[in-house]
Specification:
Blueprint lengths: L1 E5 L5 H10 L5 E5 L11 H17 L4 E4 L2 H15 L9 E3 L2 H9 L18 E6 L1 H6 L1 H9 L4 E6 L3 H6 L4 H18 L7 E4 L8 H7 L5 E3 L1 H15 L2 H4 L9 E4 L3 H11 L6 E3 L1
Parallel strand pairs: 1-2, 1-3, 2-9, 3-4, 5-6, 5-7, 7-8, 9-10
Helix pairs in contact: 1-10, 2-3, 4-6
Bound molecules: D-glutamic acid (DGL).
Length: about 280
């Protein structure tokens, strides 16, 4: 079984793409709605909450957990992978984040390659990264992109209230104003020059992708994280079949769990994934 963890609803955009891509693989999704949003929390709190979420999924039988959350990935993934997992007692399990596949797609360079592999002369694009306060403060995206493509300009922009507003089902006009504010602030950083590509670096943002599309010019390519993550997981599972071999079945139904109150969570979940099964208490 594969677990997907997020601070709340955002990871549903990822698990929805995964369920469509791997219909025979059973997924368990855990949304930490009791503590959402993570985006402005102190780093040590995010590490601790993410570890609790991963352990809860391991206890439910998941052998592989994907952090379907940029904030948790940027702040906690490395600590959990390098320092916690080896001494945690959960042998043979793994935790994956979603920054690596996104950087691979943005740079067209495999994650394992950490130096420029081809002449960088023409690779001088500007890439925008929209994310939460903690994702932006971690500098994970600019650092990892520049290692592989040093001539690319990476401009980050915090959209601090956007994930919370999406999570609470805010009206379209409010979301539109927040996206416009984020895009305007980004353009103020670039002197008005629009980016060639934009990473929606928060799994809540695909829900308002049409609003980013509205406020960015048509030639700015938006990088869709759910699809990119599904491509990357497919590649990973082809190389690590044992994570799914035992659990594949013809009728794999995703299970959705929440640390919050299921009735309220279910109502908003339909915005993210209209055919989502009901959430249950974790
Ligand atoms: N959806 C999460 C992300 O990808 C975080 C939203 C939040 O909890 O602030 O960053």
């Amino acid at each position: 079984m594969i677990g997907v963890f997020d601070s709340g609803h955002g990871g549903l955009t990822v698990v929805r793409a995964l369920v469509a891509r791997f219909p025979r693989v059973p997924f368990i999704y855990l949304g930490d709605h009791a503590h959402v949003p993570y985006g402005d929390r102190p780093s040590d709190e995010i590490v601790s909450l993410t570890r609790h979420g991963v352990e809860a999924l391991f206890r439910r039988g998941c052998t592989l957990v994907l952090l379907g959350c940029n904030t948790a990935t940027c702040v906690a993934a490395r600590t959990l992978q390098r320092h916690w997992l080896p001494v945690s007692g959960w042998q043979g399990r793994n935790v994956l984040g979603i920054v690596a596949p996104t950087v691979e797609a943005a740079t067209q360079t495999p994650w394992a390659v950490t130096e420029p592999q081809y002449p960088q002369k023409y690779n001088t694009d500007t890439v925008a990264v929209f994310g939460t306060t903690r994702t932006v403060a971690s500098h994970a995206y600019p650092e990892e992109i520049r290692k592989r493509c040093p001539k690319v300009t990476v401009v980050q922009q915090t959209c601090s209230e956007l994930a919370g507003a999406i999570e609470h089902g805010a009206p379209e006009a409010e979301l539109d104003a927040l996206v416009e504010q984020g895009v305007t602030a980004l353009l103020a950083q670039t002197g008005g020059t629009p980016p060639h590509r934009a990473i929606l670096g928060c799994t809540h943002y695909p829900l308002v992708e049409h609003l980013f599309r509205r406020h960015l010019p048509p030639f700015t390519r938006l990088l869709s994280q759910p699809e990119v993550v599904a491509d990357s997981l497919e590649d990973y599972l082809n190389r690590h079949r044992h994570f799914i071999e035992a659990s594949e079945s013809a009728s794999a139904e995703p299970v959705l769990l929440t640390t919050g109150e299921p009735a309220g969570v279910n109502a908003t979940a339909r915005i993210f994934w209209p055919e989502a099964p009901d959430f249950r208490a974790a």
